[in-house]
Specification:
Number of helices of chain A: 2
Order of helices and strands of chain A: HEEEEEEEEEEEEEH
Largest sheet of chain B: 5 strands, mixed
Number of strands of chain A: 13
CATH superfamily of the largest domain in chain B: Immunoglobulins
Number of strands of chain B: 8
Radius of gyration of chain B: 29 Å
Radius of gyration of chain A: 39 Å
Strand content of chain A: 35-45%
Distance between the termini of chain A: 141 Å
CATH topology of the largest domain in chain B: Immunoglobulin-like
Oligomer: heterodimer
Order of helices and strands of chain B: HEEEEEEEE
Structural class of chain B: alpha+beta
Strand order of the largest sheet of chain B: 2-8-7-4-5
Number of domains of chain A: 3
Number of domains of chain B: 2
Shape of chain B: elongated
CATH architecture of the largest domain in chain A: Beta Barrel
CATH architecture of the largest domain in chain B: Sandwich
Helix content of chain A: 25-40%
CATH topology of the largest domain in chain A: OB fold (Dihydrolipoamide Acetyltransferase, E2P)
Structural class of chain A: alpha+beta
CATH class of the largest domain in chain B: Mainly Beta
Largest sheet of chain A: 5 strands, mixed, barrel
Number of helices of chain B: 1
Strand order of the largest sheet of chain A: 1-2-3-7-6
Chain lengths: ~240, ~140
């Protein structure tokens, strides 16, 4: 074998070694890249899933929960009714052949979609679609509900008469005269149970809650709850002395 | 060993180190981004007023919900051991929140629109109210 041939053989074998080496390196990189991608996906799943699931759950819950759109009709176009809500917001409701319309006043009567007119107050019940349009199943044509006037007060009874009591309101020291409505409900706590009581049983120094309607300087109560009654004096003789 | 082989090994190792560093940085950045999202979602899902502030957070039902059965339970959270008054159009319910501030009350509804006022009172007599409009219909 000549030197020239030996050199050629040597170069060829080196070339083959290098080729093998690069193939091995490339294979290793490919394996590494695939592994990294899989790891990244595996790591991303447990962090993303609960949030995604919770959001998905909320969306499904919102879409599957019946809600009401209340408001006055401002426009009617084919199967879509535009209403102005109590808060002044413009909303749209979509009716179909299955939608039932009921007029509620002193009596309840079934009406048709064609009977709905601009200015009517509607209570639309249905399911919100993704565009926030309510797909209505049932509509009540009624009058706009008034904002409730009732309120609650909390205080100590300072004076008691047959038909009214006066309380000192906690937190602002204002005195308020409370008179009972005809069907007033008076309750109190007896151990862990709420039991019925009577207006006549309310004592001075009692702590009470009352719910009713306030006029200028009096309060007409429809319910009173006695929270605390004054402790009976232990020795009446001493107090009388 | 030939010079080319040594260069290839050094180059491969350097490339591997750069790649590993890149992956480590990307993972760290992803974790940092994910953390505030989780905290935020937790904050949204549990609206619990702190004991110092008097507030009401109603859990269910929500405003403008349509209910098809009555009685139905109203649940919410406020300051611990507060007095709660749930006032419907026809009846008033007096109850107390528990040690964690949670409260629940079974409430009777009338057909149609129900306007509820839920008021919480703390021991000092301070109060806060929330209004709730519910539509009750058995026909829906």
């Amino acid at each position: 074998m000549t030197i020239d041939k030996k050199l050629k053989l040597n170069v060829k074998s080196n070339y083959l070694i290098m080729k093998k080496f690069f193939v091995i390196i490339l294979t290793l990189f490919t394996i590494l890249l695939v592994r990294v991608k899989v790891l990244a996906q595996e790591e991303a799943t447990p962090e993303g899933d609960p949030i995604r699931e919770a959001v998905q759950e909320k969306i499904e819950e919102a879409q599957n929960k019946p809600v009401a759109y209340l408001g006055t009709v401002t426009d009617i176009v084919e199967n879509t009714v535009q209403i102005k809500s109590i808060e002044g917001e413009i909303k749209q409701v979509s009716v179909n052949d299955d939608t039932k319309f009921v007029k509620v006043n002193s009596s309840t009567t079934t009406v048709n979609y064609s009977d709905i007119a601009i200015g009517d107050f509607l209570v639309n019940m249905g399911y919100r679609n993704p565009d926030d349009v309510l797909v209505v199943g049932r509509t009540l044509v009624t009058s706009q509900p008034e904002k409730p006037k009732r309120e609650s007060v909390f205080g100590k009874v300072t004076e008691k008469l047959n038909t009214e009591i006066t309380i000192e309101i906690k937190n602002n020291s204002e005195f308020l005269t409370i008179s009972p409505e005809r069907n007033i409900v008076v309750t109190k706590k007896d151990e862990n149970e709420t039991i019925r009581s009577r207006f006549a049983d309310i004592e001075e120094e009692s702590i009470i809650f009352a719910v009713g309607v306030r006029s200028e300087d009096s309060f007409s109560a429809r319910s009173i709850h006695i929270v605390e009654t004054p402790l009976p004096s232990e020795n009446p003789d001493e107090s009388s002395e | 060993m030939r010079k080319e082989v040594i260069i290839a090994i050094v180059g491969g190792v350097a490339f591997g180190v750069i790649l590993a560093f890149g992956i480590w940085r990307a993972n760290s950045a992803l974790k940092e981004d994910a953390t505030p999202e989780i905290v935020e979602s937790e904050a949204i899902s549990s609206p619990s007023p702190t004991p110092d502030e008097l507030d009401i957070a109603l859990a269910k039902p929500a405003d403008y919900d349509v209910l098809t059965s009555s009685p139905s339970v109203i649940t919410g959270v406020t300051q611990p051991d507060s007095w709660i008054i749930v006032s419907t159009d026809v009846e008033d319910y007096y109850l107390r929140s528990d040690g964690t501030g949670k409260f629940e009350q079974e409430v009777e509804f009338i057909g149609g629109v129900n306007q509820l006022i839920i008021t919480a009172y703390n021991q000092d007599g301070k109060s806060v109210s929330d209004n709730l409009l519910i539509v009750y219909s058995t026909e829906f």
